[in-house]
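Protein 1 of 2
SEQ + STRUCT:
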Amino acid sequence: QSYSLKFVEAGEFDYYCIYHPTMVGQVVVNQPDTSSSTSEDSINEEPDEEN
């Protein structure tokens, strides 16, 4: 069984297991890097003319 959650804001989010109280963790969500050139909008799917 699995579970997924999309985080929409940055922050630190604690979680724990209801059945195993000693199983705890924290998800750290950073602000997205808007300067990255790997976003879908900037991917060039055309082949290079050099090849």
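Protein 2 of 2
SEQ + STRUCT:
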Amino acid sequence: MKTEFKPSELQVLFLWRLLFLPGHGGWCNEIKPALKSADRRELEAAGLLCSEKKGSTHRLYVSLTDQAWDWAVNHLNAPVSKRSPAAGYVVQDVLSCLARQLEAGRLSLAEFASGLAEIDSAFAVSEERPSVNLAGEIRRAYCECSEGRGNVRVRLADLRERLGRIDRAVLDAQLLQMQEQRELVLYPLDDGLDIHKRDADAALHLAGSPRHILYMEVAK
């Protein structure tokens, strides 16, 4: 049985720095915290990091893989290095990302600070709780959107359209629960030109970041 790779606290900090950089990548020698080659190769071997030499000077460019996004979603509480001064850069990156969300009106500071408290409270007042049946409805709606194919991009806007009768907070809670159970993965759309109003309206905000699309396995 293959043991799950557990990055060091410094490697975790490096991944978070990349996640909040424009394009989720950068020149390796310019990114703080600096990683030793052996630590970088460990991330590459684990499928979390992609590196390539670019330009006439063959500088090393590193970027996150889709697997790294999946890892980050499921390891938000992973310990990071407290000794590295680069932690301050990551905090600044997160706050800058939050500021953009606030300015765009996609999120309020209270929503960010309270996390999923509103979703949790929705369970208390809603007669419809997340259930196996609701999970099944989500799978069926995904299959309708993907024409029966698994692991293809489906917009949350299309999924919500097919599940319009379900309370939004309840649906969001079920999607998050399924993600925690690794039944699906929620991702943002990085290309601003690909984000339409219906995508922004349908986005599920997680830790201050809007998720517009999802991927899911489909049983054969």
